[in-house]
Inverse folding.
């Protein structure tokens, strides 16, 4: 089924978070970029709406939308699941080694639990249009995001113990997450490789390219490719 690109403009509908104070940005302890996979099984047709900042408007371009044909979203690397709770439901983040975190928004039928250890490729849920903390969505997909956490969480601690800035995002509205939190801890996906595909951001939001490292074949985004 053809997937339509997502748009995350107009986040005013997301409830503002009351009483959350973000401290000044803390230097990340993240190590060398890991050998991340893609957030879905390979060998299938995938649509991507392109690379953009978490709010689709401004800031670091740490997000990519994916709509795999089988609609199953999977862990890109081994790690520990941190379920983030909002009044509208839950969404999934995974804490990896050396301070790296990946996020998976819009999932329906979430099949993992908080604190669960996952291996690369483990199923997390289905692509969807869920808006647990706000935002907007057009067409079922996963809003895949990349983050780095500060030293307190990266050095063997539980990120839930260190507050909003370090990764406890329970109750954080999408508006807050995609601006203040993203400014402090969002990590640009430009030039990074996931599952043998290197992603390059374009000048505009929702643009860029996906290049297969082995063949150097380049697909413009938004676009469809076979991973």
């Amino acid at each position: 089924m053809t997937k339509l690109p997502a748009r995350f403009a107009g986040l005013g509908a997301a409830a503002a978070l009351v009483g959350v104070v973000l401290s000044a940005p803390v230097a990340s302890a993240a190590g060398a970029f890991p050998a991340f996979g893609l957030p879905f099984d390979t060998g299938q047709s995938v649509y991507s709406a392109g690379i953009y900042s978490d709010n689709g408007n401004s800031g670091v371009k740490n997000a990519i939308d994916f709509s795999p044909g089988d609609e199953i979203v999977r862990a890109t690397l081994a790690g520990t699941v941190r379920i983030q709770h909002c009044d509208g439901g839950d969404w999934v983040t995974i804490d990896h080694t050396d301070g790296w975190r990946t996020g998976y928004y819009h999932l329906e039928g979430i099949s993992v639990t908080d604190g669960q250890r996952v291996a690369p490729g483990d199923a997390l849920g289905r692509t969807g249009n869920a808006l647990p903390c706000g935002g907007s969505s057009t067409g079922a997909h996963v809003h895949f995001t990349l983050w780095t956490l500060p030293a307190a969480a990266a050095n063997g601690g539980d990120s839930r113990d260190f507050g909003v800035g370090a990764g406890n995002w329970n109750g954080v509205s999408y508006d807050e997450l995609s601006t203040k939190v993203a400014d402090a801890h969002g990590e640009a996906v430009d030039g990074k490789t996931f599952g043998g595909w290197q992603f390059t951001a374009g000048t505009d939001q929702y643009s860029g390219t996906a290049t297969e490292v082995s063949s150097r074949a380049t697909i413009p985004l938004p676009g469809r490719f076979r991973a």
Summary: The CA atoms of residues 53 and 59 lie 6 Å apart.
